[in-house]
Amino acid sequence: MKPSPESNATFRKHLEQFIKIDDAEFEGILAYFSPKKLEKHQLLIRAGDAVHHTYWTKKGFLTSTFTAPDGKEHIIQFSDEGCWITDQNAFYHHAKAIFNISAVEDSELLSLSFENREKLCATFHKMEHFFRKKANDSFTKQQKRLLTYLTSDSQQRYELLLQEYPRLMQRLSKKTVAAYLGVSRETLSRFTKKG
After folding, report:
1. What is the per-residue pLDDT across 39-64, written as a single tens digit (0 to 9) for each?
2. Which helix (H) or strand (E) holds 13?
3. Among 68, 105, 123, 145, which is most exposed with the fewest C-beta within 10 angstroms?
């Protein structure tokens, strides 16, 4: 079932941050996507599996995690409303996933297969422009996060995280936030008491 354009106004606004589209174009673009729902704690992508889709978060909150050989779990990415998420390497290079992606809350997504992404860009050249601009935006944010991780202390990383995700502490457990920042729960508790 194709989602209706009316119910996806936020998705259209997201696209129009980078491209201009009319009603007919938006309806045509939307036809390449499929709605997907996840329940809280449900896995979207499991490490070791093939990855055929990328996802835009319409509602909810997801995390992408990597489990190191020593068993320690590292949080790679959060995805709240308006964010894209997938295992990038597995999606673009037809490799096996190395990340687990799961829903922290009941979530609604728009799913785009690799095949449909290729067709979409061939049919709507504006979408090629959109994905290029979006990729540039994502690369910039990743570099900033890496630089912050390398040059800032944990308190500064916590404050920057709250700037990006203001409702984070209401949506995630302290254990999850602490894992993302690479600090203990006790350290995170000290940060939250200061705020």
Report:
1. 999 999 999 999 999 999 999 999 99
2. helix 9-15
3. 68
